[in-house]
Amino acid sequence: MTVESGYHVFETAAGFAAIGWNAKGINSFRLPARTAQEVERSLLRRLPDVKPATPPQPVQAVIDDALRYFAGERVDFASVPVDLGTQEPFFERVYAFVRQLGWGETATYGAIAKMLEAGPEFARDVGQAMAANPVPLIVPCHRVTAANGRIGGFSAPGGSLSKARMLEIEGVEVRDGVVTRDLPQLGLGF
């Protein structure tokens, strides 16, 4: 992306969302909340100096995809350029791995740690990376669950209920906070 920085608030079928960008890519995405003010405040906490702007075409394409996603259409954000800012090296590896999870796929915190050859003791670090994810949906942290398919926490508006709704958009059945449908999941027992 070769565009100046800015942000834009837009309405989806699930509520108001916000997106921020710079010349490197999308640097902030706020999942839908009830009001435009709520998502704008959330975005500005992360990017206090950014100004509202009309989205350039590459950013508008991401917005259009987000609108389609929350309307229930299958969308893949894996190729969207992102600028995650300065991250711990392990977090960078976690984000790169999670971006590979496809529509309706889930993985546990522990399985991701193991796949990154970090061991189960790093499951908590995977969870911390997901909580700090600056571009949820684009880095699909909603697809990462706790052990045994439990939804776990979610720092977006609506908390774990929002996570369950996003998984359900992707055809993943969630009952009483647990993924219940037989689906591709990296579990590995922890």
Compact description:
This protein is α/β, with parallel strands linked by helices and 190 residues long.
- Output the radius of gyration: 16 Å
Structural class: alpha/beta
- Helix and strand string, N-terminal first? EEEHHHEHHEHEEE
Shape: globular
Q: Helicity range of the residues?
A: 25-40%
Strand % is: 15-25%
H/I helix tally: 6
CA(first)-CA(last) distance: 39 Å
Please report the total strand number as a whole number: 8
Mean pLDDT: 90
Task: Summarize the biggest pleated sheet.
Answer: 3 strands, antiparallel
List segments where confidence is low: pLDDT < 50 over at least 5 consecutive residues: none
Description:
It contains six helices and eight strands. With 190 residues, the protein is of the alpha/beta class. A three-stranded antiparallel sheet has the order 1-2-3, with helices on both faces. The chain has a three-stranded parallel sheet with strand order 5-4-8. The chain has a two-stranded antiparallel sheet with strand order 6-7. A hairpin with a 2-residue loop joins strand 1 (6-12) and strand 2 (15-22). The longest helix has 14 residues, at 57-70. The protein is globular and about 45 Å long. It starts with 5 loop residues before the first strand and ends with a strand. The mean pLDDT is 90.
